[in-house]
Q: What sequence folds into this?
């Protein structure tokens, strides 16, 4: 009951905040960052590829390329599917500018050190056409729909150093322009929209390194991640139905991110981005900066805030995540001065369902048990039995579904083997002494 009450209060708060008149705030903030104005902004197509799917990713200021700990990673770092613990499906809704919206469906799964998944996104805007007399003669939707296919793998995965993950996305996107009318008789011209529609073929590359550093709590999960990504590199074609030709550049970008968890309930993430104009690199966008903080208030509730500076106007965001068993519900409020003058704020939602870890947690518990049994045997002087337990733990950790190098058991086994070796040498020396 308390969980439901907390969710209701937060939704009411966001609804009231969204209704505020923020015109003065917009003009004031615009004066703070005049040097960040980017004259090259807006020179690309398929801009919806850079719109966040919503929820937690947007609440953290979209500084997500290094964190990427859920199925919303597709737009940020393709390497993330290889490090996710859970098979996960997510559904997101982002109420963007005016009547436009973005819907996202994603599924990701991990098999050992290999991850894979798929995402479907649809951005749509209502489209109405009026004739010279102000009568509406056509109504439809402008839309951009994309499908993303992901594959990644983790190398050098171990107990201490968690490894380096690399991955790639393959993207197909379609821009749909509705047919427009003939001004002479208001009849719809068949195929007119198809000529302006476009097909985008893009790809992403990414890498994440996970390890522990400056960690002030006890936990096996890595608390520090660094990432580098290349997103939306490719080309688009238009002119279907007449003469196919190359469209404007895709919204390519290069990102470098950092995610750091100094304490169990505190997360800090940040990111630098450079939007790249593939046809003329000298006209690429300026470097933008994003950062976010997440505080775990209770085991089932987390609060996020974020900041993005892209262009002269910043983007501020607030959000929360409610973890109810295997379902996570995210809600985010964004004061978005980077995209629109009015309205400048919107709400996005995300629901993520975890479908299990394919036995990783249970297998890790078995590895731990074997390791502890080995320590017990070693303490009691049964060295061979201890070595057998540790070798079994090493073998189980290296196989499915963990596929990792379990250094504690390896070090303990090697120490025991070395002890047995030295013991045998001493026994041989003692025998020689007795014979003499």
A:
């Amino acid at each position: 009951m308390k969980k439901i009450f907390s969710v209701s209060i937060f939704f009411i708060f966001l609804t009231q905040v969204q209704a505020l008149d923020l015109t003065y705030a917009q003009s004031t903030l615009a004066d703070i960052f005049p040097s960040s104005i980017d004259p090259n902004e807006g020179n690309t197509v398929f801009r919806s590829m850079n719109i966040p799917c919503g929820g937690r990713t947007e609440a953290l200021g979209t500084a997500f390329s290094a964190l990427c700990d859920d199925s919303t990673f597709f737009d940020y770092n393709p390497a993330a599917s290889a490090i996710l613990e859970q098979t996960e499906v997510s559904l997101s809704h982002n109420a963007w500018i005016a009547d436009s919206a973005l819907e996202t469906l994603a599924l990701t799964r991990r098999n050992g050190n290999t991850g894979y998944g798929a995402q479907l996104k649809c951005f749509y805007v209502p489209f109405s056409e009026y004739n010279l007399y102000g009568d509406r003669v056509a109504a439809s939707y402008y839309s951009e729909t994309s499908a993303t296919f992901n594959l990644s793998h983790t190398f050098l995965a171990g107990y201490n150093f968690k490894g380096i993950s690399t991955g790639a996305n393959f993207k197909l996107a379609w821009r749909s322009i509705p047919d427009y009318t003939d001004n002479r008789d208001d009849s719809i011209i068949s195929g007119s929209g198809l000529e302006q529609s476009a097909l985008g073929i893009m790809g992403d590359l990414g890498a994440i390194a996970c390890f522990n550093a400056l960690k002030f709590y006890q936990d096996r999960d890595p608390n520090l991640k660094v990432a580098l990504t290349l997103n939306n590199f490719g080309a688009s074609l238009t002119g279907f139905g007449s003469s196919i030709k190359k469209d404007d550049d895709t919204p390519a970008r290069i990102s470098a991110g950092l995610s750091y968890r100094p304490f169990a309930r505190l997360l800090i993430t940040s990111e630098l981005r450079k939007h790249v104009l593939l046809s003329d690199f000298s006209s690429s966008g300026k470097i933008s900066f994003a950062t976010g903080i997440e505080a775990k208030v209770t085991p089932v509730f987390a609060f996020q805030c974020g900041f993005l500076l892209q262009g002269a106007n910043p983007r501020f965001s607030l959000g929360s995540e409610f973890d109810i068993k295997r379902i996570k519900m995210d809600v985010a409020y964004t004061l978005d001065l980077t995209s629109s003058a009015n309205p400048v704020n919107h709400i996005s939602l995300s629901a993520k369902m975890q479908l299990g870890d394919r036995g990783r947690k249970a297998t890790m518990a078995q590895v731990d048990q074997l390791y502890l049994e080995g320590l017990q045997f070693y303490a009691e002087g049964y060295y061979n039995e201890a070595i057998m337990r540790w070798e079994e733990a090493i073998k189980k950790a290296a196989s499915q579904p963990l596929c990792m190098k379990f250094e504690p058991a390896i070090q303990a086994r090697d120490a025991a083997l070395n002890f047995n070796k030295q013991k045998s040498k001493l026994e041989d020396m003692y025998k020689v002494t007795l014979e003499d």
Q: What stands out?
A: Residues 1-9, 11-15 have pLDDT under 50 and may be disordered. DSSP finds seven helices and 15 strands in the chain. The radius of gyration is 27 Å.
